[in-house]
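Re: that chain you flagged

S.,

Sorry for the slow reply, it's been a week of failed gels. I finally had a moment to sit down with the sequence you sent. For the record, here it is as I used it:
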Amino acid sequence: MNICLFLPEEIGMPLALKDYRAEHILKILHKKTGDAFTAGIVDGASGTAKITGITDDGIFFDFTASGDGKPLYPLKMIVGFPRPIQLKRLLRDVAALGVCEVHLTGTELGEKSYMQSTLLEKGNAYKMLFDGTVQAGGTKIPGIFLHKTLSQCVSAVCGSRQENQADFSAPAAEKILLALDNVRPSLSLGDALGRFHGNLLSRGVVAAIGSERGWTDKERDFLTQSGFALCSMGCRIMRTETAATVAGAIILNEMGVMGNDERQN
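Prediction finished late last night. Pasting the structure tokens below so you have them in one place:
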């Protein structure tokens, strides 16, 4: 836990000693009255909390904001449902990277039972995103959305079809649409990103990653007709969560955000 996050209504209130955050502060960080720790408000500012007292009622602290909590980046990911254990890792990792939205979708080759996973119930998926955000020392939690089919997902994320996107000549206001595929790619992910000459951050990117068995030809046709460029990341076949994390890192690096020093946030 690299930051202790609080809901807005928790600021100014004592933190119960049985709360997992209190246990971390006292047992892992070994903090005592007068000490400070890194803290933030969920989807708000980051800063420092100074402990003013510790009693049976909890940890009393004063919070001072000093940063914006590391804003999320304009990268949305469409992901075909993977196995629940893979989804846990995927959500934590892309949240740590700073992806702004994750759209989980059913695919033709994806296992339908995965969509019924309890991970998607009772806030468990949100918890994985929360854990990834805390790992990164941020405060902004990526949005998560569920779609039954790829067509519904693309419609929700991209709106109407953008037929000119794949030829890299669409207006700058439109998002860049990329789909990972090692069967029928038109170019490499690196080459696709290199064609935008610094426009990635201003336009934003939607990256689509298939489920474990990849895309069908029908889905590939649909994606290209919807404006996605089919891109490869080499000849090796990766797990869905690995492909999502690697692609996210490559795209964010090309956006120019991976090398920025955000420690002050």
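What I noticed first: The longest strand covers residues 46-55.

Talk soon,
D.
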